[in-house]
């Protein structure tokens, strides 16, 4: 591919911001989602719909962070891509597929909880393990189908005599990519976002009125207030992680297609897009934390396991210390 010239774009922040944030997300996401999978898969006897969705969510988040190391290296090198065209396509594909899977599984969890809170009796036939397995499989298939065109659009190219891996597509093909980019924004983000916000707002409203009706039952009211706080935190976390990134991405696409000659505006929207981009990655670290924080049972299981591990280690240390003391006395 021949070299082509674009607006001079400021990318001084990429060598520090993106590698640093992606490295933090990689380490935290790997550890937290690994702990969540261990807690769910090996410490859970009864697999409910929530457990199935959370397991798939953790797998999607784990696969997402595993796609980060090549991007960390590339951004640390100022955008240079040393891994070849096939890995470029694969990284972009897995990055987006697991991001969209994460959003879809968060949608499934919110709908599942919404049915349990707002329609506890009527929803019994919908909150089954079989339906959860079917929905989880459908999410993987739909997300993969949505992102398949990325394998065509994403590829390596040359900018200023440097090999790069285009995040979306070759800048000369943005007119072709624009409808697909809008499709991903609407189907992959806007629709799940509206569903999640509607479900959580409905649950908070229902719990609020129930807590108000049961003022005399202090314990019940406290539990419902805690549930409302948890739902509010989950909702705000989703908004903070996903909304700025997708808004910045949409504006960037629009400017790339309709204001391509305005280099000043292009620089502003590109920097905004790149600055907000790491924020969406922190969602894969927030999901396990919110799960452990919102689930008393899971938190107690993890604390019990850590306590048992500590008790196993301490006797060994005591025996070693005692042996050392005895040998000193013999001398």
What does this structure look like?
There is one protein chain. The protein is mostly helical and 331 residues long. It has one domain: Rhodopsin 7-helix transmembrane proteins (Rhopdopsin 7-helix transmembrane proteins), CATH 1.20.1070. The chain is built from eleven helices and two strands; from the N terminus they run ααααααββααααα. The protein has a two-stranded antiparallel sheet with strand order 1-2. The radius of gyration is 24 Å and the shape is elongated.
Chart the SSEs and their pairings.
Blueprint: H1 17-43, H2 49-66, H3 68-76, H4 85-118, H5 129-147, H6 150-153, E1 156-159, E2 162-165, H7 174-213, H8 218-258, H9 263-281, H10 283-294, H11 296-330
Antiparallel strand pairs: 1-2
Detail the poorly predicted runs: 1-5, 313-331
Task: Categorize the overall geometry.
Answer: elongated
User: How far is the N terminus from the C terminus?
Assistant: 78 Å
Q: Tell me, what is the CATH class?
A: Mainly Alpha
**How are the strands of the biggest sheet laid out side by side?**
1-2
Oligomer: single chain
CATH-derived topology:
Rhopdopsin 7-helix transmembrane proteins
**Estimated structural class:** mainly alpha
